[in-house]
Amino acid sequence: MILQITNLTKHYGGIHALDKCTLDIAPKKITAIIGPNGSGKTTLFDAITKLITVDEGRVVLNGKDITNMNDYDIAKSGISRTFQQVRLFKNLTIKEHLEIALRVDDEKLFKVLLNKVFIKEKNNTHKIKEILALVGLDKPLETYASDLSYGQRKLLDLAIAIAKPHTILLLDEPVAGVNPKLRVEIVNIIKKLKSLGETIVLIEHDMNFVMGLADTVFVLEAGRVIANGKPSEIQNNKRVLEAYLGG
Amino acid sequence: MNKKFDKNFWYVFGTSVGIIVVAVLIVMMIVDLSTTKGLTGQVIKNKDSIKLGLITPLTGDAASFGQAELDATNIAIDEINSKGGVNGRLLQLIPEDGRCNGRDATSAAQKLINIDKVRIILGGACSGETLAIAPISEPSKIILFAAFSSSPKISDAGEYIFRNSPTDNDWAPIMAETLTKQGYKKVAVVTENTDYAMGVRDIFKVKFKELGGTIVADEVYSQGSKDFRTQILKVKDGNPDVIFVNPQDDVSGALLAKQLRELGVNTPFYSAFFLSSPKAIELAGSAVEGATYLDVRDLSTNAGKALIEEYKREKGTPVSEFIIGANYDRVYIIKGALEKCSEDTTCIKNYLYTIKNYEGVIGTYGFKSNGDMDTVFLSMKRIVNGTSIVLE
Amino acid sequence: MIEAYLIHLLILVGIYSVLAVSLNLALGNTGLMNMGHIAFFGIGAYTSVIFTKDLGVPFFAAFLIAGLLTSVFGFILVYATRKLRGDYLALATLGFSFVIYSLMLNWSSVTRGPLGIPGISKPCFFGLCIANNLQYLIFVLIISAISIAIMYIIVNSSFGKLLAATRDDDIGLRALGKNTFMLKSKALMISAFFAGIAGSLFAHYITYIDPSSFMLSEVILIFTIVIVGGIASIKGSIVSTFLIILIPELLRFLNIPSSVLGPARQIIYALILLVIVLWRPKGLFGKIDLE
Amino acid sequence: MILAQLIANSIIIGSIYALVAAGFALVYSTNKFMHFAHGVMVAFSGYMLFLMFSILGVNFYISCFITLILAGLLGWISYRVVYEPLQKRKSSNVILLIASLGLLILLENTLMIFFGPDIKTINYFGIAKGIDILGAIVTPIQIAIIIITLVLLVGLYFFMNKSKIGRNMRAVADNKELTSITGINYRSIADLSFIIGSVLAGIAGILIAIEQNLTPAMGTGLIIKGFTGAVIGSIMSVPGSIIGSYILGFAENFGVWFLPSEYKDAIAFILLFIFLLFKPNGLFGVDKGVRNK
User: Fold this and answer.
1) CB–CB of C176 and A164 under 8 A?
2) Within this chain, do residues A125 and A147 fall inside the same structural domain, yes or no?
């Protein structure tokens, strides 16, 4: 198991956003986490990436406990994620976004300056174009993020998550709010990523969407895993149907 | 070094240098136009006039003093000009705002010296201005003549630097001596946190202790503050024989006096200068009744009285008669020097050092070898029935 | 003799352009709303003066110490305010500048309080001293050009892109594995360093410093410079320094009554600031909107 | 005796801070930005009273009345001319803060051009003898200031909590988006907050003019202390900011009793800094929308 989540619990006042949530993510597979709105899916991602601090529970990545690490250290240790509301840097270009994602030691100011002055900086353009081709974002590299459409932003967000060195990819509602054509494209991208050997976890509230795509599905309700298994098993699970209809 | 770095560096360096050069040219052009073709009419009109620079705070906290300096100087210059000027040439005053700080004062001085080409600068007012101008004016042999700066540091700031205001070293020890002579042993000092007042406080404290007295309370309030009640409470708690009220200006002094009396402190208080301002008496009213203060001695001479009358008529109530008098005298001293030396500043400097018994509106005085006044020019006054009387 | 006046103004422009560009590094490039920048300028000025005058350290060492010590204060400020954002950050940094101002005013045994420190020596290097303003101008220009070039390189490096990214979306950048707190600390430390050396240049030029040079009105002056020039634009900050320093000087040549002149200058600053904020939020050369 | 006087001193100066802080907090709580130019509204009002009463010789109470109207008007104009366009453009509150600083300097220097830099006084009540209350000496004007402040405190509390307009204002303060859904007209609430806030500044200006004196630059000093008080209490709540101002008054006066008195302002600044760092929403506010995350 590449990512083990044990007993994650988060309370907001009296509400259980996460309630002893336990799940294991298998490598090189697509794992879908589904559940009705408010079931704690995004909270789970936020808890894994430390955007929020949990009350109890453990997150283990590749055998390493990352529960108490800082958010950026967690990201560094191999978790890439996208956001439901994409988080882009609106005054930077597509190329700059990907360069930031690709580089690992650009925070070291003196090293950066020495490199800039004495050594030719590594040219990433080839790699960048490769990733953009993978997600199918066909815009000039110098386009500013603020000039992109909603769908293109989704793609760029995906592209930087892929570009960032990672062992696991968390996609938060990758197709929320996109048009049907782009939806199909994104599904294809995800499949392509799997074929490249990526481990993917995605959140989705639409059960039908994950059926043809995911290898394993976890169903969340009120912050608790109520069912897991192959999509076909889940589809007929009574509790799951109740949760969806009730929710 | 790689090419990219080179390009970046030269881009920035080149741009900065380029912009600087362009700006220099533009400013030069504007300056040239203004002086030769007369964008500002005054330059042409008074081509043959003798220019005097004035640096004083025209804005900011100290602006009211600056305005008084400017008004008094203008009165004197108008008088001289209406009587035909100096050796047939009119005096032209170029006032600049020093804002009571070093940077603006140096900008003003650079402008006066290099653009207007004045040879004589009246100012600065705040000691901070004068101290910042001195290193600029001194090497160019420009006369710098202050009428309001009291910092002892100015005494040895340069050969071409004069002043006709007493230094803190002159009068703060006198204050300490006076209090001791009156039999006061325990003094409370209340000081405004400004360069002048803090300088006075330090000198006063040393002298007073030397004379065997004790400082029972040593309170400071920040510039512009209007609430001194807790400082006063600490004064009261120290149970002093006498209070030395040491403000920067008349208004804060008056407010302080007012609050002292409001809080039932009836200890006699001593002060300097600020009580000569009618505004202080108007503001503080009965609170300053019986207060004793050091002031410039002879502004009640005929010339002085006439000057204050004229000032009141033309400009309103003066912030301090002392400032008006000193500024007025300053112009006349310079007039004398100009008559003798024209604009030769070395001659003026030497002439000023020879002045020993100049009869000005603030009294009869001359200059010491360090450019300070040679006479300690003070007398004790007391407020009785709302007017000040001289004690001797 | 006009040259001498211009030299004087250019020295001021040189010093203030370093100050403005360094503020822009924090404010524009990193999005740190630092209203305490003037405190850095003051710390640099006082440090340099106290080290040369009271401790007898050679100028160049004091100059660097001024930068480094200011940089330490930069770290303290960014660490203390790490949890604040928006106008609260602006206020806290403004509060910081008030605290530093009271320190300068009240720590009389070191700063001489309101009396200020007069008679500051001109810089000397291994026995060679700067003798006149032209030499000082050359010195200032060299230092400013080097400082601005360094900041230019930083801003345009991959590190600089990270700063821009943290300005645009802090959380998004952390999700990419970058420690944005360290980024901000470094940015503010660099910004403070250059503000500190600008302070040193200022003190040794004017030769007299007192706390009044580092007050609220000065904060507004350098803010105006940066905003007029344009957020995150080095070129803009430099040009704007020229404008903001020189325009009021040009006013001296018009026949405005002197009682009006001073307030008029302040009114011009305020109007320029309001006009830019209201109608041209990008400033003169900025690419990024003020938001 | 000393204690009583210290308490009295704290309450007097606290009341002056509170008068400034209340209007500032009222504007902040409904509009969510720092209206620094509020300080100059105080100075402006003082000068208007000076103009009416001391220069034009209008009856004192009529002068006060006109002053309050002018103050409200100036507040309203500054909202419509400067702040509203910025709000429409969805500028951040930092930009509004910078704009307010610009406005502060603009108005302050305009006052200086019209009235000159020197200090003006309005000696309507003359110099009063202090009255001894439980060992503390207080003048009638100071008692008036304290009473007016307390009446305003109570009045504002009832206005904000009991009247419909006040409740709408608080609703806007709590959630701007929500109120536009429920049909409260944000613009008129914002107008009103500026008018009421500036009238409060007008009252402060009149009282300070009588108790102390007038300088063009007084607004800056007052707003610094006023917003320090507001931050200590809570910038989001008018009653909180008033109480915070009294706390500031007490801290300054009791602090100076034990420390050298030159640290009086430093005490205020350090309190401001500490509160902004550790309790940015003050003693009476909730920490919401202030910190990262």
Assistant:
1) yes
2) yes
What is the reported pLDDT for B14? 61
**CB atoms C153 and A117 under 8 Å:** yes
Among D16, D15, D42, D71, CA closest to D194: D71
Q: How confident is the model at residue B13 (pLDDT cuts 50, 70, 90)?
A: low
Q: Flag whether residue C258 sits within 8 Å of chain D, measured between CB atoms.
A: no
Residue A183 lies in a domain: no
| Crossing angle (nearest 10°) for helices C37-49 and C2-24 | 120
Q: Testing the interface with B: which of A117, A119, A120 to mutate, by most B Cβ within 10 A?
A: A117
Which residue of chain A is at minimal alpha-carbon distance from B5? A117
| Mean pLDDT value of segment C11-40 | 90
Domain with A34 in it: 1-78+169-174+201-247
Q: What are the residues facing D131 on neighbouring strands?
A: D138
Q: Does C270 touch chain B (CB under 8 A)?
A: no
Residue C233 CA: distances (Å) to CA of C155, C230, C239, C240, C283: 10, 6, 10, 10, 9
What is the pTM (predicted TM-score) of this model?
Answer: 0.83
Q: Does D140 touch chain B (CB under 8 A)?
A: no
Q: Does D139 touch chain B (CB under 8 A)?
A: yes
Whether this model's ipTM surpasses 0.95 comes out as no
Domain count, chain A: 2
Which one of B2, B58, B196 makes the best mutation probe of the C interface by having the most chain C beta carbons within 10 Å? Answer: B58
Domains of chain B: 50-165+300-377 (3.40.50.2300), 169-295 (3.40.50.2300)
Q: Are C270 and D103 inside 8 Å of each other by CB?
A: yes
**Pairwise CB contact (< 8 Å): C277 & D95:** yes
Residue with tokens 């040895």: B156
Summarize pLDDT for C222-280 with one digit per residue, the tens: 888 988 888 888 888 888 898 888 877 777 676 666 667 777 778 888 888 888 888 88
Cα D37 to the chain's mean position, in Å? 10
Nearest to A185 by CA among A166, A160, A158: A158
